[in-house]
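Journal club side-thread
Mid-discussion, someone asked how the predicted structure for our own chain would compare to the paper's figures. Pasting it here so we can look after the session.
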Amino acid sequence: MEGASTRGVLSHLSLLEERPRSRRGQVPGQQSRVKELRAQVEALRAQRDQLKAEIRTHKTLQKLRAPVDLQRQEEEMDAESESSELWRLMARHSELTDLLQAHRLIGGYDVIKTRQGKGLCFSLPTAYEGVYLETYNLEVDLKPKVRIRGHNIPPFIPLSNLAEQSDLQTGMRAFLDTVSLHLNAFAGRKQQLTLVKEQHKSVEVMESNLLCSILVLMFTVPEGKTPLLCTLAYTDHTRCLPTQVHLDCNDKRLPDSPQWKKSCSLLMEVPVHSALTAMKKTRTIV
């Protein structure tokens, strides 16, 4: 009887020992399940982030253009009609498609639709030293091919030549960049001329042209109040700085002096109104 009781206790102890072993055997399976669930969580997070990015992109595109044409179409449509809803969706799809195409073409320039989507009008602002100046407009036809329809760009800007060089069908962004470069350079030279007249009353502007590519100034040298003629030539019309400086004076030795050679270099390196300020401080001119 006592032996049977002992065997019963031993069997019970063996059973208790087997349970931890069986539980330990289940751990790898549980770890694999945890890894699988974590992978699913990461995949769902990636999908969520992608959806958020798509929503932000869609909202940005909606803000880029005021849907004037779409609003007019929506007012004319019957909201209770299935065909009206279909037309609205088609118009919206067409508008977004045009917007994406225009954004790829213009690279961020301000643009509005014209003639019910048959054309685009670009705004080309100019600025100099942080001051906004004139804004020019350029309208293009989209069909049957891209071409310039109208503009208010000054006639001395070689618009036709720039269009041929850039190829409007595939290089609208390059064309707009080049035109903007010419316009900003012209606006900068014109603004420099205005600042010279405002800030330097002792310097007389003898000559300038519409493109502001030639500027002739009369200086007065302190020694003997000698007059000196300075001609600035801006042969690179995409820049605000002169490419050539020529001095003319009765005293032939003066233009070749070290001081005036240094002044000529200064006039080619900094805007003319700033160069004149520096020359006055060194008493190169009155």
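Post-session note: The first helix runs from residue 2 to 64.
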